[in-house]
Amino acid sequence: MTRRPSVPDRVPLDVLRRRADGLWAALPAEVSELGTLFAESGHELALVGGPVRDAFLGRSSADLDFATSASPDETERILKRWTSATWDMGRAFGTIGGRRGGVVAEITTYRADEYDGATRKPTVSFGDSLEGDLARRDFTVNAMAVSLPSLEFVDPFGGLEDLAGGLLRTPIEPAVSFGDDPLRMMRGARFASQLGFDIEPATFAAMHEMAGRIEIVSAERVRDELTKLLLGADVRAGLTALVDSGIAEVILPELPALKLEVDEHHHHKDVYEHTLTVVDQAIDLETDEDGPVPGPDLVLRLAALLHDVGKPPTKRNEPGGAVRFHHHEIVGAKMTTRRLKALRFDKETTKAVNLLVSLHLRFHGYADARWSDSAVRRYVTDAGDQLERLHRLTRADVTTRNRRKADRLSFAYDDLEQRIAELRDQEEIDSIRPDLDGTQIMELLGIKPGRDVGEAYKHLLELRMEHGPLGSDRAEAELRRWWAARSS
């Protein structure tokens, strides 16, 4: 097990200012050469956006973003003097890319786009100043730049001060910024997760007011931002921002719906708070890169987020004030699949998360009564290649404040994992198959491929589950006995 990565430490403003000279002097020599080439051609060039922010946070990247006064055609001509490895897939948006050694540069002409309000696709127009280009960035911490080759730091909107304060604020009026591109609201929640920053009150108020605008954003872009949020260091902060702003009502309504429910197992908190805690605990159970579930793990985090979404539609009030959610794991698995498909997640991820949600309650029967070897085999077989994630999801799902109950569940799961390990030593529990394959079944029974072979295979598989390895002699005898009974 490994602890989750921490969000960046807050650095005082005066320390950040003193750090700047050393940061820019440490830029790769290739960057300085590129700046000189643009200057000699009579054009401005500046390092902008995330690379500047991350440099202040002590992070480095070989992928660098630049803004320039040069047109795309002029940029391409200059860039070809720097490297022969160039590309222009982003030409329509003013971006030309190039690689030299380990440095990847994407250079975009100053932008001054206009939006029609109906979509988030801008009418691309080029600007004439660096400050104007920075004004159209999503947040002030991403609206800082370093002019090249002079290494002058440019910060017209107070991004460095916001960086020191851990604050997300738009460079221009937030209503205008989010009206131009509603996806910026999701980026705010994503940066809250990745950087651990707070969203400035006026900016958050605009997110709340304009949450419905997120509907014009494609499902794929929403999925990408949600994925980045879930892979961040402070996922709870990002999810809370989505729910409290109302954005989750549009993109993931199953999550705020949990606020209305009381969990039968955790009376001290509603299902929403329980879910956030499960996400936290699942993240803490991820492993390092050499372990079975290297973090950050998107499938595990999605399963933790969605494991109880079936509770609202299955809620039943029973005599005596009890609340039950019968079969919510089955209903929740179906809801999970629908939501992930709507967000355009790939089939493999969707299938894995569905399986984990559907199985997350299976263990509770073990805590009440120790399973037979047969039941343990079925648990492993049903989980398949998601077993290690299921271990972690099941453990994370214990959020009770009752220490005795928590310990009992933990000890029970320790016992289950030990049972699985023991069976692994004795037999091939991870890939259970009948003792006879289809070809052997046909030869022994003298039948051709068809339904009877499948039925025989299922019968032998059931025996294998129930009794463990039978051996070929016993398997043959059991098969002949079954066939004779079936024939008669």
In short:
It comes from Demequina capsici. The chain has 488 residues and is α+β, with helices and mostly antiparallel strands. It is built from 25 helices and eleven strands.
Can you tag this structure with a few keywords?
488 residues, alpha+beta, Beta Polymerase, domain 2, Hydrophobic Seed Protein, Hypothetical protein af1432, 4 domains, seven-stranded mixed β-sheet, two-stranded parallel sheet, 25 helices, 9% strand, elongated, PolA_pol_head_dom
Number of helices: 25
CATH topology of the largest domain: Beta Polymerase, domain 2
**Which strand-content bin applies to the residues?**
5-15%
N-to-C CA distance:
57 Å
**Rg to the nearest angstrom?**
29 Å
What is the spatial order of strands in the main beta sheet?
Answer: 3-4-5-2-1-6-7
Shape: elongated
- Uncertain segments of ≥5 residues (pLDDT<50)? none
Describe the structure.
There is one protein chain. Helix 2 packs across helix 4, helix 14 (271-284) runs antiparallel to helix 15 and helix 17 (328-342) packs antiparallel against helix 18. This protein has helices spanning 13-25, 29-40, 50-56, 72-82, 130-135, 159-165, 174-180, 183-195, 201-209, 219-230, 235-245, 247-251, 254-257, 271-284, 298-306, 311-314, 328-342, 347-359, 364-368, 373-383, 387-396, 403-426, 438-445, 451-467, 472-487, and strands spanning 45-48, 63-68, 85-87, 95-100, 103-109, 145-148, 152-154, 167-168, 198-199, 315-317, 323-325. The model has no long low-confidence stretch (mean pLDDT 88). It is elongated and about 95 Å long. Strand 3 and strand 4 form a beta hairpin. It folds into 4 domains: 1-164, Beta Polymerase, domain 2; 166-252, Hydrophobic Seed Protein (Orthogonal Bundle); 272-430, Hypothetical protein af1432 (Orthogonal Bundle), CATH 1.10.3210; 434-487. Strands 3-4-5-2-1-6-7 form a 7-stranded mixed beta sheet. The protein has 488 residues and is α+β, with helices and mostly antiparallel strands. The longest helix is centred in the last third of the chain and has 24 residues, at 403-426.
